[in-house]
Write a structure and sequence with these properties.
binds heme C; Cytochrome Bc1 Complex, Chain D, domain 2
Amino acid sequence: MRKKAIVGAILAAASLAAGAALAGGDAAAGKAKAAVCVGCHGADGISTNPLWPNLAGQKAPYIVKQLKAFRAGTRQDPLMGPIAKNLSDQDMEDLAAYFSGLER
Ligand code: HEC
């Protein structure tokens, strides 16, 4: 395959993944599931600890991607890893829909 074709294929796969993440999330369900997250990421998605990222207003596909990476172990963090392992794909999409809709 030529380099352009490979890049095109990667971009097409990435936009498919992003579309799927956007389609599946339910913010109301995500709000209920976020009870476990707010201790660290803040009740309004704004964290008070400089080492804990804000989630408010973050892009939903990015949130899902990071949660899947924590679950798979390709992104490692002693706090987030065990939490992500308990989340289903649907949980991740709902949580992403909720946090992405909060004001920064
Ligand atoms: C015990 C504290 C704690 C809890 C509870 C927690 N997180 Fe995290 N989270 C962290 C820390 C710390 C990081 C940053 C990890 C790093 O430095 O790589 C993080 C990172 C993230 C990231 C990546 C953000 C980015 O900008 O890359 C996402 C998304 C995330 N958490 C979502 C959640 C969700 C959703 C929940 C609830 C199901 C949750 N977290 C619960 C501590 C926590």
